[in-house]
User: Fold this.
Amino acid sequence: MDSTKVTGPEIKNPDVGTSLAVQWLRICFAIFFSFLNRNRLKASREVESVDLPNCHLIKGIEAGAEDIDILPNGLAFFSVGLKCPGLHSFAPDKPGGILMMDLNEENPRALELRISRGFNLASFNPHGISTFIDSDDTVYLFVVNHPEFKNTVEIFKFEEEENSLLHLKTIKHELLPSVNDVIAVGPEHFYATNDHYFSDPFLKYLETYLNLRWTNVVYYSPNEVKVVAEGFDSANGINISPDKKYIYVADILAHEIHVLEKHPNMNLTQLKVLKLDTLVDNLSIDPSSGDVLVGCHPNGQKLFVYDPKNPPSSEVLRIQDILSEKPTVTTVYANNGSVLQGSSVASVYDKKLLIGTLYHRALYCEL
Assistant:
């Protein structure tokens, strides 16, 4: 078979076309959100600062650390450099990557992991991530990827001695049209959230504006792919309880966290919904207590319509006893954007807290 690439004369400079398309989408996005229900975006909400001692910004993270996952041994993975149509970016021309930090070190540094040859690094656009440790101690890293704003889930093997990732598999499926986050439950098995029902940008805007609540959670395995929960406004972060019996799903525009029971056939049934007064993004589990840590956006309008003079704020919540009738919700950290803009995730390990953002910096705190 002839593998020669054939390009039409109208695509002499694809970068220009791509740039114009992204600019057009950003303009449409800003106009669209100006008409969206202000309550869904919490457009008038401001936060009072809740500071933590012994915090500093992590060197080398300048354009977002949208998701963070920490292994039981203290190795933390960062998904950095996410770019989405309509959203601000501090490094629009730089590919994304995966960084690692050893939280057992006295002064841990974030180092970028090498990725095996054959994987397209130039279009790497990582979003939600999740790790899975197999029975033979092999560590798999699952990464939601948006190459050229498409939707895939990449599976890597983490090779600790080489500080590298070996790419194993790219997963695409019609039931994964707009993937946001994943939680791995096997070496090739995961739950994923779709934050939109459609993949087309215009239809995405329309479904959000009409509040169709068509987004869902999908279970993927090599043998079966199926929708296991649906009816979300915009399904976002996802995680699993320490005993593996429950799945937690953040619905960002509905300001809710859903608790779902996991069954042997991997189907999910809803147990409860926790209402919050903020836009909930990614969910992490405190391994020592089972508490849920939530990276939140107090004011979504500031997040989506970026103004450097009035930047998006940050908020981290801790939820204790989420299965009880009255879970305890406390604010761990809050900032008006003067230090950290657009917090999307918070993860804890051995009294160390990491806070990532959608497109800004990342914070390291000793609790």
About this structure: The chain has one domain: 15-366. Residues 15-366 form a domain with the Neuraminidase fold (CATH 2.120.10.30). Confidence is low (pLDDT under 50) at residues 1-18. DSSP finds four helices and 25 strands in the chain.
